[in-house]
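Retro notes
What went well: the complex prediction finally ran end to end.
Inputs used:
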Amino acid sequence: MSAVAPAASPTTATADSDIIIETRNLGKIYRDFWGRPKVQALESLDIEVRRGEIFGLLGPNGSGKSTTIKLIQGLLFPSSGRAFVFGKDARDVSKNERIGYLPEESYLYKFLNAEETLDFYGRLFDMPADVRKKRSEQLIQMVGLKGARRQQLREYSKGMTRRIGLAQALINEPDLLILDEPTSGLDPIGSREMKDLILRLRDEGKTILMCSHQLADVQDVCDRIAILHRGRLRELGRVNDLLKVREVTEVHAKGLSAETQAKISELIKSSGAELLSIDNPTTTMEELFLEIVRESEARPGMRTSASAQASK
Amino acid sequence: MRLESEQMWGYFEWLFQQFALLWGVGILAGLCLLGFIVCYVAATFLYGPVEGFYAVTRVIYELFARDLPSTTWRRTYAIARLAFQEAMRRKVLAVVAVFIVGLLFAGWFLDPNADYPARLYIESVLTGTSWMVLLLGLFLSCFSLPADIKNKTVQTIVTKPVRSTEIVLGRILGFSAVGTMLLAIMGVLSFFFVVRGVRHEHDVRAISADGKTGQTTLDANHTHTFEIGENGEGVTNEVKGHKHAVVDTGEKGEDGKPIYALEPPVGMLQAKVPVLASLRFTDREGNTGEGLNVGYESNYQKYIEGASLMSAIWTFDDVTESRFGKDGINLEYTLKAFRTFKGDIVTGVQGTVTLRNPNGKVESNRLRFIIKEFQVDQMSIPRELEGFVNSEPKKLDLYKDLVDENGKMEVIVRCEDRSQYLGMSQADLYIRKADRSFGWNMFKAYVGIWLQMVIIICFGVMYSTFLSGPVAMIATLTCLVFGFFGGIASEVASGKIPGGGPIESIIRMPTQTGAMTELDLGSDVLENVIKTIDYGIMSPLSVIGRVFPNFGSLNTSSFVAYGVDIFSSLLFRHITQAACYFVVTALIGYFFLKTRELAA
C-alpha cells in the first residue's frame, strides 16, 4: 500500500525554483514479509540539490545511496518524510517527463538493438516518430555506438551497455539526470569521456545527481557531495570546502634563507621575503571518505565541522 | 449437442431480462467494496486508520484524475510492442511448429470409421488449438512482468512518465497480439486440415436395371446408396453425416444408359441456422399446461403423452417468405421417446406435426413422422398444403394462411401412440434458414477461443503484478480450472446435481447410498447438520464459480462441430463478458502495480 507522509509541501522548492530535489526527513525501513522492521536503510535525510549543479552521493555499500535515489524516483516508498523533485512528490509520475535515469547496471532489454532501445524509450516519453528518429541518431553518434546500432544489446560489452544506457537516459533531453555509478564498467578513456560529458551537460544547465564508488570521479566532477554511512548523512557540502585541511597552513615562498625557514611562521613578514601564498592544503577525496567512515564507525552520529577539525 | 435455453437468449434479453447487467454491476460493486476493505485493512496495519484511508483514496483518486486521463496510446503501444517482441524473441512461433507436427500426425489418431468424421476433425483441431493458445497465454502473461521486476528492467520503464495503466494495458494488448497471430495461423491451418480431411469422392459402383437406384464405391470407409428421380438427378442416403448429389453427366454408357457422377459431400461442413421458437404445452384435456416429467432427466425435456390432447406448441415469430424461402420451410427436430411398453420396436413411436395459424381458425393436416432418436430428423413442408379453415378442408398457402398478421405461426407436435411419450425442449424443434458459410462459423468459434485466451492473459497479467511468475501461473491455472469446472459447484449447491456436497458424498460412498436416494443416517439432526455444512462449503464455491469466467460456456466449438451457426447474440454476449473481465483484471492489476515498490 502506498506510503503516507505528513502533508508537507516543498515550500522551498516551490518558492525557489532553483531547488530541483529536496528531501525532508526522508527515511526508509525495509520490512520482512510480516511487516516487521528488518533494516533501517535511510534515516532522516535532508538534502537539497540545486539547479545546474552536480551533486554526488557517496558512501560504502549499504550506506543508503541507492535507496535515496530510488526514493527520489518513486521506485521505493518512504517510511518517513518525503522527497520532492521539481516541487512534485517523488511518486508523481509526471515529474519523470524531465528526468533521465541511468541505472547502475543499465537494466535494458537485451533482445532489442540500440535503435530499437532508443525508439522504445522515446515512445515512453510520447515523442513523435520523427523526433524519436532524429534524437536516436544524435545520441547513437554521441555515445559512439554507430557501428553497433543494429546489434542486440546481449552482444554488447559492459562499456557499450553503459553508453546505450546513458543514451536512453538522455533521450528526452532531461533537466535532471540521475546517474547511478556512471563510470562503472568503463575503461579509463571511457571513464574520462563520461566525466567530460557530465561536465558538459552541467554546463548546458542540466542538474545532475550521481552516486559513485569512484571517489576520484566524484572529486573530478561534483560540485557538492553528501556522504552517507549506515543510512545517515555524515557530511554535506562543496567538494572544495570539504577537502580543505583547515588546521594546516601551507606557505609557498621564494628566496628564503635557511635561518628564516626555521622560524618561518614568525619571520615571513618581518624578514622581508616575498610571500607568495598562504593557504590550507587539500586532502584527497579518498582520504576524506575513509576518515569519515572510520570516524562514523567509532562515533555514530552526524559529523560536524568542529569534530572534523578536532579529529585532525 | 444440446442447445441450452440460456444459449438462445437474445443479447438484450440476456443483458436486461436475465439480469446479466445487474449481476455484472453487482459483482463489480462487490469486488470494489471487497478490494477497498482489504486495501484499507492493509493500509491501516501499515500507517494507521486515518492515513491508511488517505493512502487508499489517493490511489483511487490518482486513477481517475491523473493516470487514466494521462494514458496515451503511444506509450501503451510501446509496451505492447515490447511484449510482442519479447515473445517473438522467446521463439513463441515454435508453438505453431508443434501445432503443424500435431496436424501432420493427427490422421493417425482420428478414427476413420467414426460416425461423424467431420465432427471428429473439427472438435480435434478446435480443442487442440484452444488448449495450445490458452497455455501459451498462461505462460506468456504470468512470467513477463515478474521477470522484468527481477531483472530490474522495469526500473527503466517506471522512471519514465509511464502510467501503471499503460503497463497493464500494454502487456495485455501485446500478449493478446501474439496469441492472435498464432491463433490466426493455427486457424487457417486447421480450416484446410478439416476441409481436406473430410473431402472425398465416390464413383457409381452399381446401378439397378431400371436405372433408378444405385450404390457408390467404397471410399473414406463408407458407401452410399442413391435414388434417381424423374428429372435424372438424385441424392444419396445419409451416411456419416453427409449426402452426395447424383447428377447426370450427359454421357451415355455402352448400354445406352446415362452415366451418373457424384458431387462433393453435402452436410459435412455446414453452418445451419436454426430459428428457434417459444415452447408451451397443453395438458391431457387440451388446456394450457405443462409437459410431463418422466424422471430426473426431464428437467431439461418435458414429455407429452400419446393419443391424448397433450401437445407441444412452438410459436415462431416473423415467418415470412423472404426469411425462409418461397418454396416452404424446413423443420428439423430431435425428439426423444419414452416408452411405457415395448410396442412396435421396428416402426418406432409415431408423432405428427401440425402447422396452425395462432388465430386458431386455420391449420394444416397432421404430417406424420416416425421418431428417429438421437439424431436430427428433417421435414420439408411445402408452400402449398392441405388443411382446414374453420374445420372445412381447403388448400392452404403456408405464408398467407398459416401465419397471422403479426408474422406468427404455431407448430404443434403430438404423439400418436397410446401410452408412449415424446420428449422435447425448446431447442429441439426449429425452422432451418439458409445455411451460412462453414468458414465464417469456424471464424466465430475461433473468436470464442480468442476471447478465452484474452481472459487468461488478463488474469495472468493481473496476478503477475503482485505475484512471482510461478505463483502467478498457479493462480491463473486455478482460474482456468475453476472456469471449466466451477459450474459444478453451483450445480451441486443448487441441488441440480444429486448426491449432495462433499461431506454427504463421503458418507454416501462407503455406505453405498445412491445419489438419487435420500440420505438416511437415522437422525434428522445429523442429516441437517451435514447438509448445512455442505451448503456452507458449496455456496462460497458457487459464488466464486460465478465470478470466474465460465470457459465452458465461452467455448462454442461444439456449434461448429455439430454444424450449427453460432448465434450472433451469443458471440456478442461472450465479447461483453470478456470485456468485463478485461476491465476488472486491468483495474486490479493497476492497483497492485501502483501500490507496490518495484525496486524493493
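What we learned: The first strand of chain B starts at residue 204 and ends at 207.
What to try next: split runs per interface for comparison.
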